[in-house]
Amino acid sequence: MKEETKLIQQRRQKVAELRAAGVEPYANQYQPTHRVFDIIAEYGDHTDEELARLNPSFRLAGRLMLMRQFGKASFCHFQDDSGRLQAYLQRDVVGAEAYSLFKRLDLGDIIGFEGRLFRTRTQELTLWVQKFVLLTKAIRPLPEKYHGLEDVELRYRQRYVDLIVNPAVKELFRKRSAIIRQLREYLEMRGFLEVETPMMQPIPGGATARPFETYHNVLDLPLFLRIAPELYLKRLLVGGIDRVYEINRNFRNEGISTQHNPEFTMLEFYQAYATYEDLMGLTEVMFGAVAQKVLGTLTFDYQGEQIDLTPPWRRLDLRESLTQVGGIPAAVVHDRQALVALAQEQGVVLRPGEGYGRALAKLFDLKVESRLIQPTFIVGYPVEISPLSRRNEKDPEVADRFELFIAGREMANGFSELNDPEDQRARFLKQVEAREAGNEEAHYMDEDFLRALEFGMPPAAGEGVGIDRLVMLLTNAASIREVIFFPLLRPEG
Length: 493
What we know:
The structure is a single chain. The protein is an alpha+beta fold. It is 35% helix and 24% strand. The protein has two domains: 6-142, CATH 2.40.50.140; 165-313 and 374-483, BirA Bifunctional Protein, domain 2 (2-Layer Sandwich), CATH 3.30.930.10. The longest helix is centred in the middle third of the chain and has 22 residues, at 167-188.
């Protein structure tokens, strides 16, 4: 539905009038010499006398955010991507015609200013404008309360407006960029090679999830959007790249919540000649290094809870957690039939091919996960729900696998990799049976991956880290939608 309001109509009329007067409302180019941040950083502590002695001319550009007009003079605030600065215009300086144009500008218009710096009587650093140019005429007005767009749905849907009027949002995404940069730096310093693997795959693999489907017309080939890069990254281990990682976009055709978006970002990395225990130690140090760089501390507040990333972190067996944290009697936890019955009583639906292992995992989700506030590694996952993980040598019923939980949610998943092609084939066959029985999230058979394993993959460990959730944690964001520029939303109306 078009939002043709009276204000929009008035601004469209201004565009026509500007063009009729020979003023182009959408400029081709303008080259600022400085950003607001540069000005404040270099001259923010200068006195008015010092500024007068410098007397350089500055060219800046930004969006009008506030205007105060006093007849023959006007003040305004404008902002670029680095900050906000006050500007001062006098009719006698810019000229009567230009000043008349300035008075007809609107909040939201993008302007190029040129002038020198001085301080007002209130000591505010200000640009004394000698000339200006209209760069972009804004047709739609900013929200009336431009300092705080409060409709959450509107903020996510119109992120471009959110970024204009809420400075904290821009700062959050700067932190997101810094977090990803620090993850890269940490891995690069340890010899990991960043790679890119296919996002459209003939066989979706590497996770238990329902994929999005697409189609390649020329090849007459059905394809799936990537649910995980795991099987391709492990092919690279076979090829002799011993330390490899990818910061990847994944797509899973599942529900939406404060912790889930169908399109999300993962860090996935693999290290030859390492075990899942090695990766738990690596993860402790990596998370701490990122937090120290971005926040300057290992302890911080998240949604009212004080989080401490100081290692070592707690390690807890999955079954023990159901008793120690979830309050389920140990006798029930270790009785396969009793535990499955309890899970079903709690509303857990077991899909084809699922049993005790799925019941354990779902009861953990219900009874334990939300209570794990401080960093905790959960280990001892059943092989049944770990089709790509290496069996534990002492207890072949469980996998050498961990999941990391912080602030009541999963942050990472890692395991020692299964490199026995016959064992992997047998597990794929069980997954195929479950899929044929109706489990849409079970793995497909991937013959090429099995062929790669038959060439020999070194013993290795791999891990996936949810970058969106890590950003949530380090920016105190309650919802995943806060940390994704354009989260998936229902269509308007």
